[in-house]
Queue: 4 jobs
Job 1
Amino acid sequence: MELICDKQQCTGCGACWQSCPRRCIRMISDSEGFLRPEIDAEQCIDCNACRKVCPALHKMKKEKFYKQQIYAVQTKDMKMLSCSSSGGVSGVITRRILLNHGVVYGCAFDSSMKATHIRLDSVNESSRLFGSKYVQSETGESFTKVLLDLKRGKNVVFFGTPCQVAGLYGILHDTSPANLLTVELICHGVSSPALFAAYLRWQEDKLKEPITDF
């Protein structure tokens, strides 16, 4: 099988398959449940679009005169804080953007308890993004949807791990539109989706009922 980058470098961000004009790349789960790209060699036209956006092959450009500043932040909304893993910052940002008719992308569990990136345009759904997921998220078509929203003039916020944010900027060709805010999580690697699924099954067997929230 043809590789886009070394398997040990691949983060499974999904930028490669989202950029493929022939849709000849699929994201396939490996033995541990981590997503890896698989290329259909018969359909591939060697355009190298996938390699051009791969964050493992191209390091992001650093701002030359960027001054780093660090803040400790906590929401004053006690209900939001109780539903959050830390200070509730993502909830504050999400609601602010959605109340101003923007859109937000972030990780949520679907009905089968799979972590996946979703698009929100209603503040009524903002709680779906609260709390840490501790497992690799499927980005799906979120990068290309972000690009479409930006072209429509929407204010967009994207929450993700550093590698997912890098994958998004790869799709955007390293540009940073004024109407885009990206928020990276401090990340030391994500847990195995296969192990997480096995853990949920174990809990369901122990509790004798399905897991609906985590």
Job 2
Amino acid sequence: MIRKLRIKLIVACMFSLLLVLLVILGVAGILNYRELAANADGILAILSENGGSFPKQDHPVGGLALPYVFPKEGRRFSPELPYESRYFSVSLTESGTIVSVNTGKIAAVDTSTAIDYAQSVVASGRSQGFINDYRYAVCTSDSEKQIIFLDRGRELSAFRSFILTSAGVSAAGFLAVLLLLIFLSGRIVRPFSVSYEKQKRFITDAGHELKTPLTIIDADAELLEMDFGTN
């Protein structure tokens, strides 16, 4: 009984811990992914509003460029953004005919690969999303549509590393808590074990104490029956 109680205690605690860890990891992962996607969408919005390239920044007093601002969310980006970003774009007509391909701001993608990506996006029918490590946005005008792809490889790699590291740390913590709980659960249930053993001893002793006089009474009754018979 005590062993079953100990096992139930360990299972309940570890299940609760596992549930909490999964919720924390899930929420942290979702929030990080949404922030990554929101930053990418902000950069793509700036590119979309300027025909697939970054606008030239004015240099006010002091010669320092102002940060880029995404008006929709008030998100601000570093003036170094054009030099940090790797992107390419494909323009095509409504019928799917390729009009132009711009791969001048990226070295990992050639013209044919860019066209393949664009055709995959057109076939999916989505206006934004991820294809491999590239976040894309579709901009539609009267005569044609432009699909801009932004390289998010480093950010996605950091995101995956964060998830794997968090999962590893959580697993190690889970095992550490399990070992501690196995060790401490013995002390936790010890008072119940002592109480249970005392109860068993009491019942056994009480049984012996009651059995002895009952045996004597039964023997005396048999003697009386032999002497006087039964009425």
Job 3
Amino acid sequence: EVTINYTLNYQISKTNAQELYRSVGRDYSDIVINPNIAEAVKVATAKYTAEELVSSRSGLAEQIEQILTTQLAMYNVEVVSTAIEDMDFTDAFTNAVEQKQVAVQNKLKAETEQAQKTTEQEQIAAGSVIEADAAAEVAKIQAQADLEVTKIQADAAEYAGLKEAAKNKAISEQLTDDLLQYYY
């Protein structure tokens, strides 16, 4: 159930005011205006669910005003302005709407927290990838340095071997049978 307080500002058409008083009488407000307001509000609100009434208040106000403008024009009454002053729902509906809003807020909070956790995990994963890439680069540089050291050591060993071979060759060229016999 919903109770609606509705305000209608109107004026009687100056050109045909006497027609309203002649056909309806001085109680035109009770005979014409109030029943048309009640009918227009009922017709317009019937198109909405209670939940839609809360979110579509301006659309409802426009529909009621259109209906009243058309209906009251037949009695030479001009609609100046209208307004929905208040919509009062039953406590059960109000509580249900509040519970739904709380549930929606809790859902949004949970989604936000999940998104934040996901972002944090992605940042941790990205940091791990960066650390792994850095460690791999360090290992690569270390391996290249070790390879260079090994090459230098191999070159040094080869040079030492060549030097030793040259020395041995020089010694062997100086050895004669007489000298070998002497050492023997």
Job 4
Amino acid sequence: KEDMHGTNPKLKVRDENGIKWRVKLGVEARPETAASRLLWAVGYSPNQFYFLPDAKVEGLPSHLRRGQNLVSADGTMRNVDMKRYVKTEKKIGTWRWRHNPFTGTREINGLRVMMALLNNWDLKDDNNAVYEVQRSGHEEESYRVSDLGASFGHTGASWRVLMGRGGVGAYSRTRFIRKVTPDYVDFNNPTRPALIFIFNPPALISRLRMRWIGRHIPRADARWIGGLLAQLSDDQIRDAFRSAGYGPREVKMLTQTVESRIHELNSL
């Protein structure tokens, strides 16, 4: 059935083994998959995302309310992002960037740095999820950035919002670090939204209020996450992008940009 949450077309499906998946269509599929790999590599807990160049879905409605143009007559969808639903966990809420159990720790500051490294500008609190996870006979909570689709593009919302998701060329050209002081670092992500948002004051105010997430981060915490990232090999970083279906030229450009940003962090 269709999942009407968010801005991109999504479906809930079951595979031949009875495993439930959320299928996301559109431009966010590649960046979300790659971003999840890099977050996992430094110890965070993203959802399980997998990229498929094509997937055939049976039993679709006669007409989808969203994304009908992305589905062929036989139910085949190209370039999709699959999120696995895990039986031992369930979503129980959302968490806020400004106030959460980890406020002020190097781990939350490291996550803020990772959002800047990925150019993930869509940092609404609604894109953060809390999961109740069953592990070894007991329950624990897992806090995640659950929507990573706005990564590897521009650093802010624009009137051509597609340009802010998965734009490899834009990602490689954008500035990473805005300002460095003896104690703190300001990153360039997220930036202020385009002027077109002046006609939507609530969205403009919401976007402006997100900018602090990439600002005033302790240099020691930025270096800490940089040290973890520096342990990744060139091939491991390339694998993050290969797993997301990027072509050889895009993989090379993205890997070079990520490695350049890791070097900047470790030069602080």
